[in-house]
């Protein structure tokens, strides 16, 4: 019998770097991610995300998370895709790391996004998971540059970006919550400024994913 990773190659992808492990989000991971988000990601009065999903009341929060993860799978195609990973630190689920892009086979660029449970913040985990996803994109998916961004009142995210080597790439005014505008710092990372961690990167299942997104079109997906 074929396994799910053979039918949908994304499910066979695994990325490991020292204590950090990234794997595609399975349905069995979603309850743990929901519980982590419910326990808190940021101060109640703050909003670090472009879409203010993290302050939604129940059951809207949990149903919204489920719908989002299912939607990224359903809408995945070579021309436009999002990869969302569950992040484990020393085997424990601590947050999520993602990459979204359009026309990647041509542009070789995408934008990262992540969140980390409050209990795991301030320990360097956010920096490690960002370094890991960027190393994977540069080394295994042929990325040329990687975008990110954060509101100016989100110093923790901006500090991670600086540590990893992102460079400022302009600012933009965005709607954050109803009736609220906020300045977002756009950022760009290229291989020559990338600050890597010291852990070797171990990757499984990437060849099938490369074919799926159109990087190696000659082989079977």
Question: If you had to describe this structure to a student in words, what would you say it looks like?
Answer:
Strands 7-8-6-5-4-3-2-1-9 form a nine-stranded mixed β-sheet, with helices on both faces. It is of the alpha+beta class. The two termini are 18 Å apart. The chain has a domain of 149 residues: 3-Layer(aba) Sandwich (Aminopeptidase), CATH 3.40.630.30. α5 links the parallel β5 and β6. The longest helix is centred in the middle third of the chain and has 16 residues. It has seven helices and nine strands, in the order αββααββαβαβαβββα. The mean pLDDT is 92.
CATH architecture of the domain at 4-142 and 203-212: 3-Layer(aba) Sandwich
Strand order of the largest sheet: 7-8-6-5-4-3-2-1-9
**CATH level-four homologous superfamily name of the domain at 4-142 and 203-212:** Gcn5-related N-acetyltransferase (GNAT)
The stretches of 5 or more residues where confidence is low (pLDDT under 50) are none
Number of separate strands: 9
Return the structural class. alpha+beta
Estimate the strand proportion: 25-35%
Taking the sheet with the most strands, its summary is: 9 strands, mixed
CATH C-level class of the domain at 4-142 and 203-212: Alpha Beta
Gap from first CA to last CA: 18 Å
Radius of gyration, CA atoms, in whole angstroms: 17 Å
User: Which whole number gives the mean pLDDT?
Assistant: 92
- State the share of residues found in helices, binned by percent: 25-40%
Shape: globular
Helix-strand string: HEEHHEEHEHEHEEEH
CATH topology of the domain at 4-142 and 203-212: Aminopeptidase
Figure out the total of helices.
7
């Amino acid at each position: 019998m074929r396994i799910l990773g053979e039918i949908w190659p994304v499910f066979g992808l695994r990325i490991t770097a020292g204590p950090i492990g990234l794997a595609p989000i399975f349905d069995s991971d979603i309850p743990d991610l929901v519980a982590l988000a419910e326990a808190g990601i940021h101060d109640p009065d703050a909003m670090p995300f472009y879409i203010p999903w993290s302050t939604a009341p129940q059951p809207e929060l949990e149903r919204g998370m489920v719908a989002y993860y299912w939607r990224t799978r359903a809408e995945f195609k070579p021309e436009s895709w999002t990869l969302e990973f569950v992040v484990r630190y020393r085997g424990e689920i601590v947050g999520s790391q993602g990459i979204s892009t359009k026309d990647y086979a041509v542009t070789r660029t995408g934008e990262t996004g992540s969140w980390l449970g409050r209990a795991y913040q301030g320990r360097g985990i956010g920096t490690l998971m960002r370094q890991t996803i960027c190393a994977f994109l540069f080394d295994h998916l042929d990325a040329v540059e990687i975008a990110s961004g954060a509101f100016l009142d989100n110093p923790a995210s901006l500090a991670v970006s600086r540590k990893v080597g992102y460079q400022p790439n302009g600012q933009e005014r965005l709607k954050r919550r109803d009736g609220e505008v906020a300045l977002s710092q756009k950022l760009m990372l290229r291989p020559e400024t990338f600050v890597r961690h010291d852990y070797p990167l171990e990757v499984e299942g990437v060849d099938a994913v490369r074919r799926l997104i159109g990087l190696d079109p000659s082989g079977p997906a």
